[in-house]
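Run log, item B.
One chain of 564 residues. Sequence copied directly from the ordering sheet:
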Amino acid sequence: MADIWNTDTGEAVYRSRDAINNLRIRVRVERVTTTAALSKHLQQQVLSQPDGGAIELETLTSHGQTDGNEEELVVAWQEKLFSQYEMELFQNESACQTPLDLQYHTEVKALNKAKGRRNQRIFTYTDHDRYTSCLALQQLKTSSDLLSTTKSSPTFLAERMASVRHRRQDRRTMDGSVPKSKIVNWEPTAEFVKSSHVVNNAMQTMHIMGDLAPAGRMGQKENEYLLVTIKTDCNGTVIVKPDFNNDKEPYRIVTTGDKREVWRLTVKNMCTTMQPEEKEREQNVYKDLYVRHKEYLKSLVGQDFEMPPVGILRYMMNGEIVSAKGFEYDNLYIHFFMELPNNWSSLPFQTLSGVTQTCRTKTLGKENVAFFSYPFSFEAFYMSEKESEESIPQWPVIYFKVLSLDSWQRFRTEGYGYMLFPATPGKQTITCHTWRPLQSGTVSALRRFFIGGSPELEDHSYVRIPGTFKGERLSRFGFCTETTGSVTFNLHCIQQARAFVDATMLKKRRQKVFDQLGGFSQQGAVCTILEAFQRARKKMQEARESLPRDLVHTTPQLQVESSA
């Protein structure tokens, strides 16, 4: 006569697009007694016989054991069902401490005036109850028993972290002390990241409880047992622990105390299935809602694409400081700012400077590379005021400065560099080489090594052409520098102007350099010619280096003899 129990007491995760308020769960608890077990066993034997229908077992049926030995109830989501303990507690208004307690006091008084509560043993703790956050979540063990919760009171942190997935505990030391080394894992694996990161989702919780005390002793806290826990979030995820029985065997609950009693637990989903007509009607409503929302968004955007005024170029750049490599010290960061030439302007709230995070270098091959992946965006407008066709517009410049910071808070200048805004739109990857001022002498090198600090530029635009320079030739004779490393940028550039709309405008006579973008085309042609010249020169040098040295040295002599 041994009963078969369902030992799969783990939680089940469901996803639903329906409102959680439509959730209905039927919970049934039944005390397992000797009479009930014998009656069930005999009924199974009788039903298995061909003429079993002629035998009546009214004396062994469970008519006499329905009084407190079993209860079946359909519970809705966040439906409050009071226990015997709460009925006695909230009868006195002096015991109410919160507005929710006062509301429960009013409901208990209404139940006492009416026919009473419809439940006896099964009751609920909703998400707003004080017991929900203080109740230690009962672990449904993999054994055949469902044991009661421990009576330890949770701490404040445990209450706040009730909806947080806990970290792995097996990584702690045996004595519980904090490890003195390897606190930060610099090379985490995928499994380590998956198991160590904390995921916090706002969950609503509901507990279905059972007062499994013997008859006449109901209303005591030590006889309360957790039956079902339901959790849900705003994404439609519903977690039920334990899972619905469906056609499986019931769960087993064993009470504690001197008299260990066994109870059967059956959980069933009682949500009504939606009819095909209702599903089709709901899908049509969703489609109509999506169409209306799409039309609303389209009305906000408008039909006309935003265009800059006539004679103005709109330049948008979404950039990224990818990496820096080849520098002497570690823990690098970059300070950059943008300079706008004449006839260029930006929005009032536009940020023209920025500082990256401090990044440690990583050895790749023979280079120490610091990967920043620092994004930035910039938007500027150009308007030509000159009528000359020969004028070529100047592009904005990004000046940047690479610095290092060690654990002793020593700053060092690692390099200066600049980058012109690309003249052509699209995606481009640009690597800029840097240099730093060099002060001759051993004292400067010792100062840089021991206490930090190094010569700095007073004007960062001196990297290129200073803005205060008005002469014809810029001489830097006597200024000592040292080549350091390089910085890589990823740039996505967009140029927008009315002149781009109509290609035939390029064939007309240019009234303004910018209006027809002739200056940009001219500058692009000059840059193309210079690039082609550099490539040809590089090929000629490579061909010259590949020639034998005797042939290279005899060529000037032949030229001298021929000239003689």
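Observations after the first pass:
- The longest helix spans residues 518-546.
- The CA atoms of residues 84 and 405 lie 67 Å apart.
Flagged for discussion on Thursday.
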